[in-house]
Design goal:
One of its GO terms (biological process) is DNA recombination. Keywords: DNA recombination. InterPro entries: DNA_brk_join_enz, Integrase-like_cat_sf, Phage_Integrase-like_Recomb. With about 300 residues, this protein is mainly α. The chain has two domains: about 10-75, no CATH class; about 85-300, Intergrase catalytic core (hpI Integrase, Chain A, Orthogonal Bundle). The chain contains 13 helices and five strands. The strands form two sheets. It has a three-stranded antiparallel beta sheet with strand order 1-2-3. The protein has a two-stranded antiparallel sheet with strand order 4-5.
Length: about 300
């Protein structure tokens, strides 16, 4: 079609080109057709790179967006993976050998993935590939009860993750999320993040490198986490084939629902995008201060 590499700023023009791109990907893909969700993910990546590199936003006009909604209706329904439970997390904790650095990083990453409802692209690598918006060491901050930054283990009460973007953040605005200690030493987002940061610092690598590093030259892989989750699910008496990397994100969301948090709070905390809701609604500190502890309070925890 002989279009330029970068989309024009004109909204009608770039929406038209994005719609053509989306239709092609959905129908033909690269050797096979793609799902509408995958296509929308690609559109979001394009938008994010334009915002980050060129400083302007691109996106689909309502009419083109409606066409892609129609693609979703034609896609065959997929069976979602099962959510990780606190019982499976306990089994994972028992299976890992904490004398091995890779296992310690797998645990820290899994705990963050569960509590912060992370997408795998936000903290894990696939081969040599990782996204520009994946969490780096520089994106992690620890604060005390007064909100002052600290690294003292006894003073730290909360961890704050700065998100540079995500596949659903079409405008690359980024956001941050904060969680307090869970009250359980074996499974706590604050302690997990603190370990990952200290391990990262011990490797003597730049703070701009991916947070979940096994060593100076190896990023933690999606496949490493999936393998561990499947093994833990099997140990817990579940069918391993029903679990994958997304099981941590869905498990955290399920735990929040079961702990009594409403769907809007979970949607906002998990950064599930609805631009209108995201723009006008904020999560209160009172809410996030008790999230982590209540995610582990259900009967599943006390049975193991």
């Amino acid at each position: 079609l002989q279009f330029a590499k970068w989309l024009p700023e004109d909204r009608r023009q770039h929406s038209y080109q994005l719609a053509l791109f989306a239709t092609y990907c959905w129908k033909y893909g690269w050797g096979k057709s793609g799902s509408a969700s995958t296509v929308l993910s690609k559109v979001s990546h394009i938008a994010w790179h334009h915002r980050r590199t060129l400083g302007y936003n691109v996106g689909l006009l309502p009419g083109h967006q409606l066409a892609i909604t129609g693609m979703r209706r034609k896609d065959p329904s997929s069976k979602p993976k099962s959510p990780v439970t606190s019982a499976i997390l306990k089994c994972l904790h028992e299976l890992l050998d904490f004398a091995v650095a890779q296992h310690r990083v797998i645990w820290g990453a899994s705990v963050l993935g569960f509590f912060f409802l992370l997408r795998r692209s936000e903290y894990l690598a696939q081969g040599s590939r990782m996204h520009d918006y994946a969490i780096r060491r520089a994106d992690v901050k620890f604060v005390d009860a007064r909100g002052h930054e600290t690294r003292n283990l006894h003073d730290v009460t909360s961890v704050i993750l700065q998100f540079r973007g995500s596949k659903s953040d079409q405008f690359g605005k980024g956001t941050s999320r904060e969680l307090a200690r869970s009250g359980h030493r074996w499974c706590c987002p604050v302690l997990a993040a603190l370990y990952l940061v200290r391990h990262h610092e011990a490797l003597r690598i730049d703070a701009g490198e991916l947070l979940c590093k096994v060593d100076a030259s190896h990023n933690l892989q999606v496949s490493d986490v999936v393998r561990a989750i499947k093994a833990a699910a099997g140990r817990a008496g579940r069918n391993p084939q029903y679990y994958a990397s997304h099981s941590l994100r869905s498990g955290g969301a399920t735990a929040l629902f079961n702990a009594g948090f409403d769907s809007l709070a979970v949607k906002l905390f998990g950064r599930r995008k609805s631009d209108a809701v995201e723009r006008y609604t904020r999560i209160s500190g009172q809410l996030t201060s008790r999230m982590a502890s209540q995610m582990l309070q259900k009967p599943a925890l006390h049975q193991v």
